[in-house]
TrEMBL record:
SUPFAM superfamilies: (Trans)glycosidases, Galactose mutarotase-like, Galactose-binding domain-like, Glycosyl hydrolase domain. Residues 1-27 are annotated as: Disordered. Belongs to the glycosyl hydrolase 31 family. Residues 796-953 form the F5/8 type C domain. This is F5/8 type C domain-containing protein. Pfam families: DUF5110, F5_F8_type_C, Gal_mutarotas_2, Glyco_hydro_31_2nd, Glyco_hydro_31_3rd. Residues 1-11 have a biased composition (Basic residues). It comes from Streptomyces virginiae (Streptomyces cinnamonensis).
Amino acid sequence: MRLPSIRRSRRVPLSGRPRPPRRRAGRRLRAPGAALLAAALTVAGLAAAGPLVAPATAAPSGATATAGDVTGLTRSGNTFTVTATSGAKARVVVARADIFRLWLSPDGTFTDDPAGSDLAVTTDFGSVPVNHTDAGAYHRISTGSLSIRVYKSPLRFSVYRADDTTPVWQETRPTSWTGGRTTQYLARGADEQFYGTGLRLGEWALRDKNVPIAVDNKWRENDNASPAPFYMSTNGYGVMRNTWAPGSYGFNAPTTLTHDEKRFDAWYFTGDSPKSVLDAYTDVSGKPFMAPMWGFELGNADCFNASNPDYQGDHARPRHQSTPDVVGYAADARAADMPSGWFLPNDGYGCGYTAPLKSTVDALRAKGFQTGLWTSTGLGSIADEVAAAGSRGVKTDVAWIGGGYKYAFDGVQQAVDGIEKNSDARRFVWTVDGWAGTQRNAVVWTGDTHGTWDDMRWHVPAITGAGLSGLNYAAGDIDGIFGGSPQTYTRDLQWKAFTPAFMTMSGWGATNPSAGYHDKQPWRFAEPYLSINRKYLQLKMRLMPYLYTMSRVAHETGVPSTRAMVLEYPDDPVARSNATSGQFMAGDSLLVAPVVSDTAVRDGIHLPAGTWTDYWTGRTYQGPGRLDGYRAPLDTLPLFVKGGGIVPMWPQMNHTGEKPVSTLTYDIHPRGASSFSLYEDDGRTRAHESGAYARQRVDVTAPASGTGTVTVSVGAPTGSYSGKPASRGYEFTLHVASAPTALTVDAAALPRLASKAAYDSAASGWFFDPADRAGILMVKTGTKAEAFTVRATGTTLPAAESLPASAPIDRSGWSLVHADSQETAAENGAAAGAFDGNPATMWHTAWSSPKPAPLPHEIQIDLGARHTVDGLGHLPRQDGGVNGRIGGYEIYLSDTTADWGPPVASGTFADTAAATTVALTPKTGRYLRLRALTEAGGRGPWTSAAEITLTGRPVPVNTA
């Protein structure tokens, strides 16, 4: 007998288009017609959100216009209104010393404000002193942090620091508009880099990239799964366009910033670091929400109601016939000792769920799982699903909110309201098609992707880069939804375990593509994959207090838990670029370098300044530098702890609340002075919003190197929340190279124990194990309720190994300055082919003209930043041709192309196709000049080169 089912997940059909089999949440649909949209709005219960807009395409017809010259400026409080000869007006509204709004209205009115307060939710920061002066060529509006210039002829804007001499951003020409598009043009600094634009599926350093700020639901590399009209610059500012209109940002020279509307409206934020800019941006657009603790645990999405006639997948799936079948999978997870925290048991088109829902929710909760629901139509039953049945999460689908922009934004808000107005629970919503402000409401994820190494490669910078738009919770299905293998699943799960929220899907690819691959739950794999999956899920559960605290930092400051290297190291020239797009910081202490290819060796790990300890071996390195040849078999994720790192850890458990946190462990890598402020609350309700939480500060002092005293000062927890322990035990694992001569707690000696077994069974004491990860000092203090201090006297810190003095210089930021000759007519012999990373392309001097240019020839390259260069690699043409091989050469390096000085090397290359390396006298500069004095074989006045590479070290940005 078939149980009754609720058709909550029935997809609205598209007229004239057959339903494909096995569709899932997030599966791409084409834009619905107006009638269907109206019906969907009715089903969803959303107020009319205005028409959905297509992504920016060709420029609309009509003449381009600008505001003209300034005719006047008036002031009302901190609002300055500028009039212009065309009838256009502009407003500058100073909200805070570091925040202002710039609004340009072509028709001179300020009534067209489609975003209203949706994106800028907080704009009143109290009074702020603002001065205005007429400086002749421009009006100056100044605060304690910045100086805004309003140029008069023609109307243009620029922003300087408070000194009125240091530029932040400058318009190179007036903002222009057509009938339906407005573009701002900004000067681009010589070293300026850009970040942001939402959940962009690819690299996060955006200089020289053109980024669509538009919804397309394709979910492939360089698309944007959740665009945000926000970016920030290394010049120390960020900007959010206050609009729902799609657009496109070209981070070129000049930078062009376009949206499809006849208006310009933007909020600007200035700061002294990327972190401070994010803080200001999220002060206005809203801080990231605080997810429930169970939301940090692994989620599992699948259809367990396959017998539903409306389901578009396999109706015969075993153990998936009706919603209560999900409880069997929950039992499997627990039997496999596999941490996991929640299920979406109705994920699939037409799946729905079997009524009554409450019994399934209760049965899952009894096994430590929460329940969420997926929807492709709307939330008509959410009040009952949350209040009566006890569901606690929502995942939206493009079949409902796929038009994006305000429509999707309002759909997410409805899901948030459905949870929070019908329970004391926190919001936990997953969505695609987010926008600026989505960080305060939802997890964004990358849509329908594939279980391939290549998809994994671009997922690392995509999820990391989302944090540069304030999106603390960004995710992608583990191993994608299509295809996959046990190997790709295991590698993908490893690194995603260090992000706040992650989920695995049932998968719509081939059935069992290889042995041990059954569905996409981590406990349904054969060995060794099963044990490796367990290892990383267990580690994430132990790291819960650390990762939860990092997300509280995001909730308070806008700085995400998953951090691009530039956030922690903004002055590191390597960290600023995509040379580090394949790694990230998990919080402030853990560096994660995922393996995203079928290999057991990881190259190109950048370790910034300071010491870095291999989490698995205890081997310590001295940065900055590049680490190559790191041994990373399938069970090893390259993971490093920053010197000074303090990482709180729970006892091992499979879900939040399975065990009491009767002992809290602090895993510490002492090095100099460091601190950590642990955050705790009830992990479930919204009581923290009213101050129901506690903090505990831990301070560590240690020598910078060598032997000395390590002191750990643990403060008493301050604050209170439901379930806060009155006291608890503490354990410390100190990564040191030798046993201390004395160890005390509050000046009282703690006994040294003779063995690890004795330590494990003791209530207090210490034990040093020199064989454990190059040395671990383990300390148990016993139960404590107040502040206390642990002091280890006469211990030695691990010695740090130096990294190689030289490394390959990343070429992603290189650009051509000059080539005296290049062939672009008869073939692609453009000079940029000599440094594009493709040996099949080359620079070849012009030969199709009647009279080729004579030798010598030269190429000049901008390295994108200053480097100390000590070697040049030269690969001659590789296409079988021989003419143009460089013979005699000179190599120059300089900070200016106006004065090269003497060459750093000169010589003669052999007449072969083999690669050659030239050792250079180390010199610091930004520009490279390679002069070809002769042709190696004397065949003619030609020059060619397939690849030019350099070795050396980048120079820190703040070094003159």
